[in-house]
Amino acid sequence: MNLKEELANLIFPNIKETIEDLERRYPERNLKEGAKVTRFAPSPTGFLHTGSLFTSMIANKIARDSGGIFYTRLEDTDTKREIEGSDKLLLKQLKEFGIVPNEGYFGDHEEGIYGPYVQSKRKEIYETVIKELIIRGDAYPCFLTPEDLEALREEQTKNKEITGVYGKYAKYRDLDVETAISWIKEGKPYVIRFKSRGNHENKIKVHDEIKGDLLLTENDQDVVILKSDGLPTYHFAHVVDDHFMHTNLVTRGEEWLASLPIHIEMFRVLGFKAPKYAHLPVIMKLDDGNKRKLSKRKDPEASVDYFLSQGFEPSSLLVYLMTIANSNYEEFIVQTKDYDLDHFKFSLKKMSLDGALFDNDKLAFYAKEILSKMKKEEIAVKSYERAKKFSPELKEFIEEDYSRYEEILNIDREKKNPRKDYAKYSDIYPIIKFFKHDEYLNILKSPLEFNENISKSIIKDFLAAYLGNYALEADENVWFQNVKEIAVKFNFCGDNKLYKEDPGKWSGNINDACEIIRLAIVGRKVTPNLFAIMKILPKDEIDFRIKSTIDTLN
RNA sequence: GCUCUGUUGGAGAAGCGGCUUAACUCAAUGCCCUCUCAAGGCAUCAUUCAUGGGUUCGAAUCCCAUACAGAGUACCA
After folding, report:
1. CA neighbor of A39 nearest in space, from A244, A236, A210
2. CA A205, C1' B71: Å apart?
3. Using one digit for the tens of pLDDT, what is the confidence trace for A57-83?
4. Which nucleotide has the least CA–C1' distance to A81?
5. Helix, strand or coil for residue A214?
6. DSSP conformational letter for A297
7. Which nucleotide is nearest to A511 (CA to C1')?
8. Integer distance in angstroms from CA A44 to C1' B22?
9. 20 to 30 Å CA-CA from A361: which of A158, A168, A383, A542?
């Protein structure tokens, strides 16, 4: 046994397998030509970030479109930042957006033969690879302390050099193995670093599926691959996991682009075939005139939880995100009126190179668009489900009379250009609550804002004449003619053009007459179609409301 | 500081050497329609593609410099 083997055995006494064994354990996936294997690999450090949703939506889409696999992997190697329970939450929220992996970590269980899909459970796999790397001389124990590193950085900064552990600064890379062995036996703390053969004077050509051919600086840093807590760093875990899980397209945030040379070098040294990469732009936000990454601390939109609790239909966020991902998706929508993401052909090549500003207005536009296109049955069910969790008042309202609720939602819905009152489910109740008797009583507590140019007595008499005489049996036209006939008796003008010629001649125009009825029945000046509302309200309720209004005028 | 990567209207962007008087979408504004609102229809909104040079008969498109922005620079991911 040579010294390097001795060192490797000292560090990993329990590891008996080799990389070759692992290759046999995790054979090539049997997929059709062109099938993409993608993944979403979150860290359990909080709720789902909007950027993560964006990334996973794309990864999922690519895998599905190509007949491949989309899987999830938990990257829980940072025990300090880990937040209890966030792993389950992440997967649950992903599911609410209809993103369900084909295999991997599901929050409560794992599926698939390439597991474990939780990094903390893959220790022996990393150790197996590192052990071999040590034997080959491509990795070594490093005894630099945090203080040493600090001092080194300071010196390098002072000398305007590139900071880090590389070249002559990689103090322990060529330490003789015997010394290393004895130090480890003494219990000296250490990490394992990858021994880079690169030179930062060299440029390497890399290809990114979005950004195209790129010239990056070759890596020469001896990065840490195994931390002193025995867990791997991201860089190493990425290389090992994506290799043995046979990811062939890595989709990740742009912030990883800078470390791509490290990954490429590791894949090469290990003799693994590197996957393709797509570094996705990061969603930004304007702050004081400067663009910056959406921040969970500063921006509510950074958390997917915000959209869910606000009551956005999950698919509408997805549609919006897809318009950022591929702006030609908007043209697709205009042409097809089809909001089903499955029908759209996504292309990495069409992605923008830099991060888009999150646009709440545009989200609202698509959100309204999508809710307005839903069948009344669907929006009723979905809003009811949400109300059960977030809105006790709406829940109660719905349960009073479910079919009435559907009818209310259906006002001006079943036509080519439906109303767009709601951007989110939480917009529903405030708009429709006036249907409730008690809510109407509430509204009446403050005076109704009748047009001050019309005398109270005219309003009162007009309402009294209208009371009980609604003409709701036939269509809207008949209803309106009826309103007009009665209004004309009180000197309201039935013809707007005529009214405009000399407003002084009239009590008001027909709009004013309608406003009086609207205020009496709904209590607001702005409502959906009055005829439709009156059709839904019981006749005695309408009677009650008109009488009550007349009473307030006395 | 250093290393990368970007920069087309208020926002998302198309365009990738002549077909561009810069598409399309959101926002904004105005008009029309109209019982209010929403929706819808119509129209307006970049003489110019960060700036300055260059190449070319011709540049948003190619080259160079500058400016600005973003990312990375951890025993975090």
Report:
1. A244
2. 19
3. 999 999 999 999 999 999 999 998 999
4. B76
5. strand
6. T
7. B35
8. 46
9. A383
**How big is chain A, counted in residues?**
554
Contacts of A26 (CB under 8 A, 6+ apart): A113, A114, A244, A245, A246
A438 CA to B12 C1' in angstroms comes to 45
pTM of whole model > 0.80?
Answer: yes
**Is pLDDT above 80 for A371?**
yes
Give the pair of three-digit tokens for residue A150.
């600090």
ipTM summary value: 0.94
- A298-333: b (≥16 Cβ within 10 Å) or e: ebebbbbbbbbebbbbbbbbbbbbbbbbbeebeebb
The spacing between the Cα labelled CA in A38 and the C1' in B44, in angstroms, equals: 46
Q: Report how far residue A449's alpha carbon sits from residue A452's, in angstroms, rounded to the nearest whole number.
A: 8
> CB neighbours of A290 closer than 8 A, spacing ≥ 6?
none
Which tens digits make up the pLDDT trace of A453-488? 888 888 888 998 998 888 888 888 889 989 988 988
How much helix, strand and coil, in percent to the nearest 5, is found in chain A? Answer: 50, 10, 35
The domain spans of chain A are 3-17+123-280, 376-435, 445-552
Which residue's alpha carbon is at the shortest distance from the C1' of B10? A359
DSSP category for residue A162: P
A445-552, CATH topology level: Arc Repressor Mutant, subunit A (1.10.10)
> In terms of C-beta density within 10 A (0-12 exposed, 13-18 middle, 19 or more buried), how is residue A261 classed?
buried
Q: Which bases of chain B come closer than 7 Å to a protein CB?
A: 1-8, 10-14, 23-27, 35-40, 69-77
